[in-house]
Design goal:
Strand content: 5-15%
Order of helices and strands: EHEHHEHEHHEEEEEHEHEHHHHEHEHH
Radius of gyration: 22 Å
Largest sheet: 8 strands, parallel, barrel
Helix content: 25-40%
Oligomer: single chain
Shape: globular
CATH architecture: Alpha-Beta Barrel
CATH class: Alpha Beta
Structural class: alpha/beta
Number of helices: 15
CATH superfamily: Luciferase-like domain
Number of domains: 1
Number of strands: 13
CATH topology: TIM Barrel
Strand order of the largest sheet: 1-2-3-4-9-10-11-13
Length: about 450
């Protein structure tokens, strides 16, 4: 009888950031934080160099179109005072400058299917795919902050949750028509003698008349290395899972309990298989806040000092932006079990556990210490062991590592002390991954959409 040895699963690592001085908590106010220069290219260039040299696979830039606000447009005072998603700048405009700074690191940038138009969004990602040589990915969101869309962008009312996913489906399908079905691979001739830049027979007109979008004409951007950027998605509501199973190549989940995370991983891969795809072509990541110390006591002390920088008011304001639910409007002994929202259903579901649902007070206490991902605290060895245990239990494919205090060097302790141990465990490759985002994330030998992805059906030739 042959006994197969256990094979350690290799993971991918991304740094989870936002173009703001204060992504998750009151990190900007911590004594170790340095985010005063967040609006400068130099701030992000230094971070990109550290991530690139340290072996991270990508920098993930989240997006906030607006700031937390109530239905009447009112804004909790803590939003402006404590920099809760204001100020926030446009992450897409960072990418070309960072791609010119480092040659290997990948980039994931977030845009909304509710706030943007497919044609312009598709052109922007094709442009970035060229400028990064295939190192770009699109994190698809439907926009949880519906109040911002109404108040700041002039949308009429809140779009119901499931309708946002219907609109997102049409948005992505039209994008795929443009990326995959417009220019053939050999359409560009560049023949000076005949004055032929492109063969007209190989550039196809795209006509779309849908419920939400219309387009009739030619895509103005030539095919990029990946054609379609690597596709991510974060919603895990039933509508979100269905959407991910059809389109996403990577999903970011927010489960905090490992059995639930393992269930999410299995369900998402099964959803992909139900759409005729290879379940292994859908990767699942989770966010983690990692605090490292030379001793357990030192790590615990640093974690406590970070936790102490977060106020209940700022935590409630951030939750309002994510979920549309103002926790400060409820009694502290109430629960969210019967609360409904058309905004962030995945976030709300985290705290809806039937008779075991936490009170509002307990939620606020938890938010001030766990926003929003897993907490890994300890010595380098302990942190590496905890990360491995999570992967072993859940079959997750990797982590989005949050900064715990802000600044260009915020990820340095993780890079210097934890990542070498992950390599020793076989969880990271000896040499950092290279190539397009699709190659490094899926492990394929092609930059293009894998077989079975619905985007392949939009090629007319």
């Amino acid at each position: 009888m042959v006994i197969l040895a256990d094979v350690t699963k290799q993971i991918v690592l991304g740094a989870f950031e936002e173009f703001t001085p204060n992504f998750i908590s009151n990190a900007w106010a911590h004594e170790l934080s340095d985010t005063r220069g967040f609006a400068t290219l130099e701030h992000w260039q230094q971070m990109a160099r550290e991530l690139d040299a340290g072996g991270f696979d990508f920098l993930f830039l989240a997006e906030a179109i607006g700031y937390p606000m109530r239905e009447d447009g009112g804004v909790p005072e803590a939003v402006v005072r404590e920099a809760v998603q204001i100020p926030v700048h446009d992450p897409m405009l960072l990418i070309s400058g960072l791609a010119a700074t480092v040659d290997r690191l990948g980039f994931i940038v977030t845009t909304s299917t509710t706030a943007h138009h497919p044609n312009l969004n598709a052109r922007a990602f094709t442009t970035l795919d060229h400028l990064t040589n295939g190192r770009i990915a699109w994190n698809i969101v439907t926009s949880d902050n519906q109040m911002a869309l109404t108040r700041l962008l002039g949308h009429e009312g809140v779009t119901p949750h499931d309708e946002r996913y219907r609109k997102a489906t049409e948005f992505v399908e039209l994008s795929l028509k443009l990326w995959e079905g417009s220019w053939e691979d050999d359409a560009v001739v560049y023949d000076k003698a005949t004055h032929t830049y492109a063969d007209p027979d190989k550039v196809h007109r795209v006509t779309h008349r849908g419920e939400y979008f219309s387009l009739d004409g030619y895509f103005t951007a030539i095919p990029s290395p990946q054609r379609t950027p690597f596709l991510l998605q974060a919603g895990t509501s039933p509508a979100g899972r269905a959407f991910a199973g059809k389109f996403a190549e990577c999903v970011f989940i927010q489960d905090r309990e490992m059995p639930r995370a393992a269930q999410s991983v299995a369900q998402l891969r099964e959803q992909a298989r139900a759409n005729g795809r290879d379940g292994n072509d859908l990767k699942v990541l989770i966010s983690a806040s990692v605090v490292v110390g030379s001793t357990e006591e030192e790590a615990a002390s640093l974690r406590a000092s970070i936790d102490a920088s977060v106020s209940r008011e700022s935590a409630a304001a951030l939750f309002l932006g994510w979920s549309g639910v103002d926790l400060m409007a409820y009694p502290m002994d109430a629960t969210l079990q019967d609360v409904r929202t058309e905004v962030g259903q995945s976030m709300l579901a985290v705290f809806q556990k039937g008779e075991e649902s936490p009170t509002i007070g307990q939620i606020l206490d938890e938010l001030t210490t766990t926003m929003p991902g897993l907490r890994i605290t300890g010595t380098p060895e302990s942190c590496a062991d905890q990360l491995q245990a999570i992967v072993d239990e859940t079959d997750l494919d990797g982590f989005l590592v949050e900064y715990t205090y802000g600044g260009p060097t915020a990820h340095r302790p993780f890079i210097e002390h934890v990542m070498p141990l992950l390599r020793d465990k076989g969880m990271l490759p000896e040499e950092p991954r290279t190539g397009s985002m699709r190659r490094r994330m899926l492990g394929h030998d092609s930059d293009r959409l894998p077989e079975g992805h619905p985007g392949n059906a939009f090629r007319p030739w």
